[in-house]
Amino acid sequence: MKRKRFQAERIVEILREAERDGASVAEVCRAHGVSEATFYRWKKVYGGMGVPEVRRLRQLEEENGRLKRLVAERDLELDAMKDLLGKNS
Question: What secondary structure does DSSP assign to 34-76, as a single string?
Answer without folding.
Answer: --HHHHHHHHHHHTT--HHHHHHHHHHHHHHHHHHHHHHHHHH
